[in-house]
């Protein structure tokens, strides 16, 4: 066995201190599951928990016990003589923990949205004298919210809470860490007992302090070898040529360990990506913003604007930044941004004026005030302002239309009129203006106007600056990431989304183009990012985006790149395990009775919810409400549109969000479906 970074390679070299013996009874396939999971569990229990020196009978609560780390933690805790309790999400998981992991069934605690408020009481009742648990291990490091608070209250005096997060650097991981710290701090400040919280990330330790971790790796491997440890639960293997399927299996929440096998027959597709230049020398090379000029970021106090302003100061040399926002620097995040910029080593001058850019008079006053107070001329504009009012067109009010379009239409027009002669004028638009997006007719209209205005500046007014960048979904930064709406787009985001570094690179190139000889009158006015093709969807194993199938003008894109994959657009559905929504119509047309029709729609709804939440289909309970699975208004719009297209049933967003079980919604869809024979509906009604 070996534990070292970058182990998936033909020839691996590492230090002997990172290698351990494989017991004769253990297959290579099973052994591959051991090093990272077992070392993490051993580090938490044997080192941080310091339980090897304590007497038997101490109590331990393990969250996410069915994960690879969790299963090893259960096994080690049993060998150390601890009294083990685990949390599970369903009765089936409880039976698995009892039957496979050997946990006493009475010590499996069902954790759900309805039982979470009793977690502390239930856990304490499982401990002697209801004193609480001596050790808690959060094996995935993602415990948040009420479950986290209840867990903290279940700690005994002098107890230890240990997180085992993954070092992926994602906003979700950072949020979970911050939440854990805040919750622990609140508990600690309200009691007089000593408690400890720790985090262990073996992958991070391997990269940053491999030599310091080496003795711990050897202790873990030795303990494993001497105690005849084994893999708790099954192991599912995938050939390396099916690595995408392996990751989908992991994301589906498999309780089995997933391994990759290698053979000479495996064919591994190579995905070529353009190499980006070093951001410290690439986009900024040839671009030096004038330190004496002012650069305007309208709506720039949001997620993208905050990121962009820092990039302009640190990489492009901006020294005077003016933020225009309806509320100014009223939010704590805005004030923190200004403080961080002012405290940076370049000491830029920054200001945030409360200004509605759709009000031309107020905008003119703010621009004049900035030039007088900050000392300099405005030489560049980036329009980031946006307001989302997502709702189906049929239910959209005039107020919702105006609120969403005003900053992008009137606001961009005002900025263009008052600031015609600038080095660059860039509007952050969206590809929703090109392809459309369900429930966002108002937002798409505003983006279309920005695209047209950029062309007007160059081709009609003869100005050298004018560009819209149709931004795709952003990973880790921006309004979608901050509001959590990105989860409903996660499938597309992984393939067509853009991360912060890529966004900075694009912005640097765009500014350079307008400020140099590249910014001619013939230069293109619009840059569309995140464009999908049938081939890219097929290669990623995801559903082809709806706009490639529903719009004739994009139909050629559905076939693009397919020739390189040796397939056709229609073969995509055969290569995935996703439910085939298009077959629902055939089932409904041929249904023998209303029950059959309702059952088909119920299964399709469950599959859709499971895909949105990235859980196994079996984990979605048809007797629960859709909103209990995190279906928000945006996702409800998508489901309502899906029902109209695939089921032939016109339902409203209110129907989707109503307090009715999934089965009841399916029955309503069946009763309204144009595909279900009329005689069946008449019999069902009678």
Automatic annotation (TrEMBL):
The keyword Protein biosynthesis does not apply. The keyword Cytoplasm does not apply. Transmembrane segments: none annotated. One of its GO terms (molecular function) is phosphopantetheine binding. Residues 596-673 form the Carrier domain. One of its GO terms (biological process) is secondary metabolite biosynthetic process. InterPro entries: ACP-like_sf, ER, KR_dom, NAD(P)-bd_dom_sf, PKS_KR, PKS_NRPS_Biosynth_Enz, PKS_PP-bd, PP-bd_ACP. Keywords: Oxidoreductase, Phosphopantetheine, Phosphoprotein. CDD domains: enoyl_red. This is Carrier domain-containing protein. It comes from Pyricularia oryzae (strain P131).
């Amino acid at each position: 066995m070996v534990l070292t970074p970058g182990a998936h390679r033909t020839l691996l070299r590492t230090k002997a201190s990172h290698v351990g013996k494989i017991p004769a009874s253990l297959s290579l396939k099973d052994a591959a599951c051991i090093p990272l999971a077992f070392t993490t569990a051993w580090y938490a229990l044997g080192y941080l928990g310091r339980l090897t020196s304590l007497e038997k009978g101490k109590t331990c609560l393990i969250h996410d016990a069915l994960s690879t780390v969790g299963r090893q933690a259960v096994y080690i805790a049993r060998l150390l003589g601890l009294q083990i309790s685990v949390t599970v999400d369903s009765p089936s998981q409880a039976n698995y923990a009892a039957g496979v992991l050997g946990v006493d069934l009475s010590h499996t605690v069902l954790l759900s949205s309805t039982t979470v408020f009793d977690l502390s009481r239930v856990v304490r009742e499982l401990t002697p004298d209801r004193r609480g648990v001596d050790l808690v291990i959060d094996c995935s490091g993602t415990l948040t919210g009420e479950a986290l608070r209840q867990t903290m209250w279940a700690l005994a005096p002098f107890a230890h809470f240990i997180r085992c997060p993954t070092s992926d650097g994602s906003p979700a991981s950072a949020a979970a860490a911050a939440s854990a710290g805040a919750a622990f701090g609140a508990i600690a400040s309200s009691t007089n007992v000593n408690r400890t919280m720790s985090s262990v990330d073996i992958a991070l330790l391997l990269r940053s302090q491999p030599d310091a971790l080496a003795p711990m790796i050897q202790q873990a491997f030795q303990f494993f070898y001497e105690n005849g440890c084994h893999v708790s639960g099954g192991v599912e293997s995938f050939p390396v040529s099916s690595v995408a399927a392996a990751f989908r299996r992991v994301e589906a929440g498999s309780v089995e360990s997933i391994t990759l096998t290698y053979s000479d027959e495996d064919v591994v597709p190579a995905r070529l990506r353009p190499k980006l230049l070093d951001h410290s020398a690439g986009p900024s090379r040839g671009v030096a913003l004038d330190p004496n000029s002012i650069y305007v970021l309208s709506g720039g106090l949001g997620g993208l604007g905050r990121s962009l302003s820092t990039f302009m100061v640190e990489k492009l040399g901006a020294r005077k930044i003016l933020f225009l926002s309806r509320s100014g620097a009223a939010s704590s995040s805005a004030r923190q941004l200004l403080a961080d910029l002012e405290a940076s080593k370049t000491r830029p001058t920054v200001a945030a004026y409360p200004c509605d850019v759709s009000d031309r008079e107020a905008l003119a006053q703010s621009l004049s005030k900035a030039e007088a107070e900050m000392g300099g001329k405005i030489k560049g504009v980036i329009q980031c302002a946006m307001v989302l009012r997502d709702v189906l067109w049929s239910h959209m009010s005039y107020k919702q239309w105006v609120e969403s379009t005003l900053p992008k239409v009137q606001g961009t027009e005002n900025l263009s009129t008052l600031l015609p002669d600038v080095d660059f004028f860039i509007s952050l638009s969206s590809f929703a203006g090109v392809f459309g997006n369900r429930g966002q007719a108002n937002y798409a209209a505003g983006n279309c106007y920005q695209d047209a205005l950029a062309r007007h500046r160059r081709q009609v007014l003869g100005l050298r600056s004018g560009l819209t960048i149709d931004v795709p979904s952003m990973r880790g930064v921006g309004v979608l990431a901050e509001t959590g709406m990105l989860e409903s787009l996660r499938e597309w985001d992984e393939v067509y989304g853009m991360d912060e570094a890529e966004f900075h690179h694009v912005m640097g190139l765009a500014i350079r183009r307008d400020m140099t000889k590249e910014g001619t009158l013939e230069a293109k006015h619009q840059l569309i990012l995140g464009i999908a093709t049938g081939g890219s969807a097929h290669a990623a194993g995801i559903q082809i985006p709806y706009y490639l199938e529903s719009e004739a003008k994009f139909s050629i894109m559905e076939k693009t790149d397919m020739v390189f994959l040796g397939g056709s657009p229609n073969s995509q559905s055969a290569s995935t395990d996703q439910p085939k929504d298009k077959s629902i119509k055939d089932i409904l047309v041929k249904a023998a009775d209303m029950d059959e029709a309702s059952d088909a729609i119920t299964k399709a709804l469950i599959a859709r919810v499971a895909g949105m939440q990235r859980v196994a289909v079996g984990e979605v309970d048809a007797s629960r409400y859709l909103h209990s699975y995190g279906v928000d208004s945006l996702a409800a719009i998508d489901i309502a549109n899906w029902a109209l297209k695939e089921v032939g049933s016109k339902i409203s967003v209110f129907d989707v969000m109503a307090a009715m079980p999934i089965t009841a919604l399916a029955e309503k869809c069946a009763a309204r479906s144009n595909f279900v024979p009329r005689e069946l509906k008449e019999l069902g009604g009678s």
